[in-house]
Specification:
Elements: H1 2-9, H2 13-16, E1 39-42, H3 48-53, H4 60-69, H5 73-76, E2 82-84, H6 106-118, E3 124-128, H7 130-137, H8 145-150, H9 152-156, E4 163-167, H10 175-180, H11 183-203
Parallel strand pairs: 1-2, 1-3, 3-4
């Protein structure tokens, strides 16, 4: 597991053999693999602050995600209990409007199947945003992110493992979405907190 993570950290495919335009800056892959964690956070891609620090979710989005999960930073960054595997490992750069570009496509093709084959103990995947939901739910994903998140309990009741819990991105840009969809806080967050406590406590 350590060797695989080190290999990913050395990856330069998005510069050397890019799909489309190369990464506009030096790669800095951010990923946390684990042979014991039962929870995996599958986000989108690091933002600029994470790119600068090398610490995943080390930003306001991370603060909100930890609040959703009901855990502190110590638990969140305990690699023995929580793995973090975004769909793109490097900050992808900004689009013309100043927003983050989509996750780089190279990561999924090169690494993701290999990573999850190496972590069969994962029991819960938090699929944050449409890109993670597309990979982890496949054809089960609904027509929109809202519909996919609303169907979270349907995915939860499936027999297949790991369980996948779809979530919106915890970015503060999604505050309007959260206000428009109060069922998320009322129905989904209690389930999330309960299961995170169960899985992280058992792994500790």
């Amino acid at each position: 597991m350590v060797a695989l993570e080190e290999e990913i950290v050395r990856c330069r495919a998005c510069v050397i053999e890019p799909i489309g335009s190369p990464l506009p800056h030096q790669p800095r892959p951010v990923v946390r693999l684990s042979s014991t964690a039962r929870v995996c956070i599958a986000g989108q891609a690091p933002g600029m602050r994470v790119h600068q620090t090398g610490i995943p979710f080390n930003d306001p989005s991370g603060d909100r995600l930890r609040d959703w999960m009901g855990i502190d930073r110590e638990t969140f960054y305990d690699q023995s209990r929580i793995a973090i595997v975004p769909m793109g490992f490097c900050f992808p750069g900004y689009d013309a409007k100043g927003g983050d570009l989509p996750p780089r496509k190279e990561c999924v093709g090169l690494w993701h199947d290999q990573i999850f084959a190496a972590m069969p103990q994962i029991e819960l995947v938090l699929a944050i945003g449409q890109y993670a939901q597309r990979y982890h739910l496949g054809s089960l994903r609904k027509k929109s992110l809202t519909d996919t998140v609303k169907a979270a309990r349907d995915f939860w009741d499936r027999e297949e493992r790991p369980r996948v819990l779809p979530l919106p991105h915890p970015s503060w840009r999604n505050t309007a979405w959260l206000k428009k969809n109060p069922w998320f806080e009322r129905e989904i967050l209690p389930l999330l907190k309960k299961e995170i406590q169960r899985y992280t406590a058992a792994a500790g």
